[in-house]
Write a structure and sequence with these properties.
With about 300 residues, the protein is mainly β. Helix content is about 5%, strand content about 40%.
Length: about 300
């Protein structure tokens, strides 16, 4: 808060003229910063020294303002990280639980972690870690059995061999390829060609559904091959349909083939599609993380 050097009135940082006497304020020359000089009494607008507990004119208590001033002075020239937290949306933990991310590193798991949720059988003892680096947050899986997933917000580019979860389905994006060409050998005029369909000239995507049998053993389904350039996944009338899954709407996700890359595009803001991270991945305000059966949302104040 700039202080007028003429009448010592506190002014808004954007004010060009003093609200008390009309004196022109030039922050570069005449302006005096509150954090550098002292406290203006909120009762009578009198300027006081930084350590003054009571106003020298009217006697109003200034202790609370002194504490604020001290805190501001200690932070001058720095950008302290805002308060960030993980809010439990659903899972085995207490509903609406809030976990503050105050430390440089926060571990998540079923045992001896900063955030410990013992009742989730799908959590590994040490499942994931969230680290703060230069006021940015990164999440990294710690070699857990089931992996760490982040919800796709509208769209994202994915690499082959990436796992995604939608509804109750877990799918591996095996890989993409194409476009192919007709490689059949050309025949001479005195020969005949064997019956057969021409090789597709479309790009294609290979998918594989991952599941567990009744004994809990990890299993992999058959490869699903679909031609592009866009493959739709949903509850019905799609290139890949799961009509028995009530959590998947009619058209839930589109996979766009871009060479060997895959662009995942959700059908709406309500679509809950998650991808498995393979390396330290930045987290942003509003991101949702699926760890075990715990769905957590990052919120910043």
């Amino acid at each position: 808060m700039p202080i007028c050097p003429k009448c010592r009135t506190g002014n808004h940082p954007k004010d060009q003229f003093c609200q008390g006497c009309g004196n022109h304020l030039d922050p570069g020359q005449d302006g005096i910063e509150l954090v550098d000089t002292g406290i203006v009494c909120p009762g009578c607008d009198t300027f006081n020294e930084p350590n003054q507990k009571e106003c020298t004119k009217c006697g109003q208590f200034l202790g609370g303002l002194t504490e604020i001033l001290t805190a501001m002075s200690g932070q001058a020239g720095s950008n302290p990280p805002s308060s960030t937290k993980l809010v439990l949306i659903r899972g085995h933990g207490e509903p609406d639980s809030v976990f503050l991310l105050q430390d440089a590193s926060t571990t998540i798991g079923r045992q001896a972690s900063t955030i410990t949720i013992q009742r989730d059988p799908y959590l590994s003892p040490l499942h994931a870690v969230i680290e703060r680096k230069e006021n940015n947050l990164f999440i990294q899986d710690q070699g857990s059995l089931n992996g760490t997933f982040i919800r796709i917000r509208q769209s994202i580019d994915l690499e082959p061999q990436t796992e995604i979860i939608l509804g109750g389905r877990r799918i591996l994006l095996v890989g993409a390829g194409g476009a192919a060409f007709d490689s059949r050998i050309k025949v001479k005029t005195d020969q005949a060609r064997i019956y057969g369909s021409p090789v597709t000239k479309h790009s294609y995507l290979a998918l594989r559904e991952l599941y567990t049998d009744k004994y809990g053993k990890a299993m992999a389904g058959s490869v699903i091959l679909r031609t592009g350039p866009v493959i739709s996944i949903g509850g019905r009338n799609c290139d890949v349909s799961f009509p028995s899954d009530p959590a998947i709407s009619a058209r839930y996700l589109e996979l766009h083939i871009q060479g060997t890359k895959i662009k995942a595009v959700t059908s709406s803001e309500n679509a809950k599609v998650f991808y498995r991270i393979k390396k330290p991945t930045p987290l942003h305000d509003g991101d949702e993380v699926l760890i075990g059966e715990e769905l957590l949302r990052l919120e910043s104040d």
